[in-house]
Amino acid sequence: MMRAMPRSPRSHPIQLLPVSGIPEIKRGDDLARLLYRACRLSGTPLRGGDVLVVAQKVVSKAEGATVELSSVRPSEKALELARRRAATRSGPAKADDPRLLEVVLGQSRRIVRDEHVLIVETHHGLVCANAGVDHSNVPGEDRVTLLPRDPDRSAARLARALGRLTGKPVAVIISDTFGRPWRLGLTNVAIGAAGLPVLLDLRGKPDRTGKRLEATIVAVADELAAAAGLAMGKARGIPAVIIRGYPFPASRGRARDVLRPAQEDLFR
Amino acid sequence: MMRAMPRSPRSHPIQLLPVSGIPEIKRGDDLARLLYRACRLSGTPLRGGDVLVVAQKVVSKAEGATVELSSVRPSEKALELARRRAATRSGPAKADDPRLLEVVLGQSRRIVRDEHVLIVETHHGLVCANAGVDHSNVPGEDRVTLLPRDPDRSAARLARALGRLTGKPVAVIISDTFGRPWRLGLTNVAIGAAGLPVLLDLRGKPDRTGKRLEATIVAVADELAAAAGLAMGKARGIPAVIIRGYPFPASRGRARDVLRPAQEDLFR
């Protein structure tokens, strides 16, 4: 976590620049180079201080984190889960495929809720539906993507490579769209991060009346991911967005630092 | 909820423009006029199609939704809650003030969790810490703000007035920073909205491989609020941000539509 740095009182605009022209990504592709080139071709070459938000899906594809469901043999546990879910079905039947459930279980530490959606805690500690295993924007009827094995490491690798190509430091967020309790709909959140603070601690800073702010730690990486979500658009095939003009101190923040420890979580 | 509109494949940048020069707001102030003027003085006069995200605090102050704690006589229930909380204190002592707790209880339908933070369901249906009752950025040691009584109505009123001043339709989001389960830190979310979709339904739209997207409803008003949060900065006294270049269909979305019905919520 980073203490907030002093900032100039004058605020500047922040830009969200969609990066188009990223081809369908295959295992082993040099994603950093493809992203770097797509930024240039979009008319917005990367600059130092930019935050590049990259959708998890292209990272997973480049890392080969995909599974062909026809190659999966569901365990007894997955078959049992599929039977139970089918009996009380309200969601799409695809989500009850025992092969898919086998993949989801393999990505999970434990099941948090098994009701109209299957909410798990992944081996990363992320709490989300279906462990982030997903069909959409994956070519082929039977292929799914997994979340990257270590999204912070993936982000660090991309940030290093993009920094080399750009000649200046570039921060990277790897994002995915997750649901949440209490509120409907999905929002884009940070599942991996490198080169920027993930939580910004404003505690003790004066507010505009001079009183000290209490209990104010802002999840800036999630706000950056959400902002990028506005310019991504799942249906439009824009898997990366440059955020330009957001001032931040260099930092070794990791997206895993935003995960609330299970023992402190009142809702798990 | 709105079905996504067809969009051109070419994406355009989105800008987050912080609005500075908003004076300390007092009950009865013409907030729309002050915001309109501050946008002009910030060098970014409002345009049709802009989304103006306004921090709850200035709306509450303009509406007189503030309470002087010295005028509050705590009920037996608030005193009991204060005693219980003081016994297991881990947060700041200010949050255990029985007068504050009396105000929080008055804003709440029910207590969702009473542990190191007090999480309630407000009379609006919002689930958040301390019912959004807050000391920060309020002049005076003893004064707190409440959430606006009907934030969607407040947003609609602002949107109408700003539309008249601008001569073009302007959308308005009223935002506050809330915590959430599973993930640390606060993010800015929409508690009131007018003139734009709050949930964007992409179900049935083709993804880039031509498959139909499943289970994809994006909480765009929350993503817009989070994006604005990046440019607000509680410590910098920027209570409003223009989001320019985000394409959306005119809509009668209300922020209350994003509230997950209690009976469908697995975590309440």
Query: Low-confidence parts of chain A, pLDDT < 50 over ≥5 residues?
Result: 3-9
What is the makeup of the main sheet of chain A? 5 strands, mixed
Q: What is the strand tally of chain A? A: 13
Strand order, sheet with most strands of chain A: 2-13-3-9-10
- CATH class bucket of the largest domain in chain A: Alpha Beta
Q: Give the overall form of chain A.
A: globular
Of all chain pairs, the largest interface belongs to: A-B, 84 and 84 residues
Oligomer: homodimer
Radius of gyration of chain A from CA coordinates: 20 Å
The percent range for helix content of chain A is 25-40%
- Count of domain modules of chain A: 2
CATH homologous superfamily name of the largest domain in chain A?
CofE-like
**Strand residues, percent of chain A:** 15-25%
**CATH topology value of the largest domain in chain A:** 60s Ribosomal Protein L30, Chain: A
Average pLDDT level of chain A: 90
Structure description:
Two copies of one chain form a homodimer. Chain A has helices spanning 31-41, 56-63, 76-87, 98-106, 151-166, 220-232, and strands at 2-3, 14-19, 51-55, 66-68, 108-114, 118-122, 127-129, 143-145, 171-178, 187-194, 200-201, 217-218, 240-244. Chain A is globular. In chain A, the strands form four sheets. In chain A, strands 2-13-3-9-10 form a five-stranded mixed beta sheet. A three-stranded mixed beta sheet of chain A has the order 1-11-12, with no helix packed on it. In chain A, strands 5-6-7 form a three-stranded antiparallel beta sheet, with helices on one face. Mean pLDDT of chain A is 90; it is low at 3-9. By secondary structure, the first copy, chain A, is an alpha+beta fold. Chain A has two domains: 2-65 and 148-258, CofE-like (60s Ribosomal Protein L30, Chain: A, 2-Layer Sandwich); 66-145, CofE-like fold (Alpha-Beta Complex). The two termini of chain A are 23 Å apart. The first copy, chain A, is built from six helices and 13 strands. Helix content of chain A is 26%, strand content 22%. At the A-B interface, strand 2, strand 10, strand 12 and helix 6 of A face strand 2, strand 10, strand 12 and helix 6 of B.
